[in-house]
Amino acid sequence: MSATAGQAQGERGLAERLGLKPGQVVQEIGWDEDSDEELRQSIEELTGNELVDEDSEEVIDVVLLWWRDGDGDLFDALSDAMAGLADGGQIWLLTPKVGRDGHVEPSDIGEDATTAGLSQTSSVSAARDWSGTRLVAPKGRR
Questions:
Q1: What is the pTM of this model?
Q2: Higher-scoring residue by pLDDT: 6, 97
Q3: Helix, strand, coil % over all residues of the chain, rounded to 5
Q4: 72 vs 40, 52, 67, 77, 78, CA distance in Å?
Q5: Which residues pair with 66 in a beta bridge?
Q6: 114 CB contacts (<8 Å, ≥6 apart)?
Q7: Which of 24, 79, 96, 137 has its CA 20 to 30 A from that of 86?
Q8: Per-residue pLDDT tens digits for 103-127
Q9: 71 burial type by CB count under 10 A (0-12 exposed, 13-18 middle, 19+ buried)
């Protein structure tokens, strides 16, 4: 296998870890210079679409929400992120891993997600410095 093929496979693996599929529309909220470029590129590669920004008026399949402690009110951000989400859509809340600047306590995520009407379904190591928490609306509310 060539280095390029191996690199592409590794990049695709990051997006697949989030359960993303070709053709999905992924909205990115909260991008900053510390956001993981390898993860972003893998998502675009796998879905075949560029990430859309927070001002997009498209129906969104997945929201990628980069969030750091000190970014503001997580409940408000989650509520806003749900606005353009398709039925059955999901939010991947990406937060810095333990020990990294901006780490968000899991209890804070759980509390704000529940208050926003979301259920936490899984957590993954989304990238080198980022943890991902998958949030969905309960089945009765979708």
A1: 0.88
A2: 97
A3: 35, 30, 40
A4: 23, 22, 9, 8, 11
A5: 94
A6: none
A7: 96
A8: 999 999 999 999 999 999 999 999 9
A9: middle
